[in-house]
Amino acid sequence: MDKGFVEIKIEESSATISFHHPKSNSLPSEILKKLAGAFSNLSKDNNVKVILLKSEGEKAFCAGASFDELIEIKDYESGKEFFMGFARVINTMRKTPQFIVTRVQGKAVGGGVGLIAASDYVIASSEASIKLSELALGIGPFVVGPAVERKIGKAAFTEMSIDHDWRTAAWALSKGLYTKLYDSQHELDEAVNEIVHKLSACSPEAMSELKKIFWDGTNKWDELLESRAELSGRLVLSDFTKKFIQSFKNKN
């Protein structure tokens, strides 16, 4: 069975991290671990000036947390550890000295929105709608919340969290989650290649110092996101959440 993968490709002074999972590019713990490891390894590579993050395929960018794993969580420790996977990826992305450019070719849900929000520059398809569906599960966007709120503001984050409906790519652009939108995959890829090429010619020291400024005020996120993972790890054990996930899986 295809369990998905994370790949790193380095060309001259840029690196590409690609991830894939057969279930709409969802994020099981193994994929999360590999993503965090990829960013950590590249952060130490002085030859890499810019990192491109993308998922494979032409449809969903990322379906968020793996429901297959969520339904199997039986205790608080394993629940916290699962959500710590998201915390580690977000914290590693914010600490990575290189700018992270993210290509979003399709819909993003939950943890996928978190990946986008933890990026520094996001180019997306006009079809790339977003959704924070966690409240419907009986949890809440606790771990990804700080990254999303930092990008779009508290009012927009509150709106997304409470009614947990789809938001269009145009809405995401207007709130600052996306930097640019394109109607075709060809235009999307051209724009991605252009910004990666442009950043590859910039001073790595200057970009690193700029990134520190962009992420100013997040120095306590290691502790913050761990506390959010603890909250999610407790709530995921509720009967409400278990019944919701099982019902969702039965429909699909």
Helix content: 40-55%
Q: What is the name of the CATH superfamily?
A: 2-enoyl-CoA Hydratase, Chain A, domain 1
CATH topology: 2-enoyl-CoA Hydratase, Chain A, domain 1
As a whole number of angstroms, the C-alpha radius of gyration is 17 Å
- Strand content range: 15-25%
Count up the domains: 1
CATH architecture: Alpha-Beta Complex
**Mean of pLDDT:** 96
Oligomer: single chain
* Poorly predicted spans: none
Q: N-to-C SSE series?
A: EEHEHHEEHEEHHHHEHHHH
Tell me the strand order in the biggest sheet: 1-2-3-4-6-8
User: What is the CA-CA span between the terminal residues?
Assistant: 18 Å
**What is the CATH class designation?**
Alpha Beta
Note down, in words, how this protein is organized:
With 252 residues, this protein is of the alpha/beta class. It has one domain (5-200): Alpha-Beta Complex (2-enoyl-CoA Hydratase, Chain A, domain 1), CATH 3.90.226.10. It has 12 helices and 8 strands. The protein has helices spanning 29-43, 67-70, 76-95, 111-117, 134-137, 145-152, 154-163, 169-175, 185-200, 204-214, 221-235, 239-251, and strands at residues 5-11, 14-20, 50-55, 99-104, 108-109, 121-125, 130-131, 180-182. The strands form 2 sheets. The chain has a 6-stranded mixed beta sheet with strand order 1-2-3-4-6-8, sandwiched between helices. Strands 5-7 form a two-stranded parallel ribbon. Helix 3 (76-95) packs antiparallel against helix 11 (221-235). It is globular, with a radius of gyration of 17 Å. The two termini are 18 Å apart.
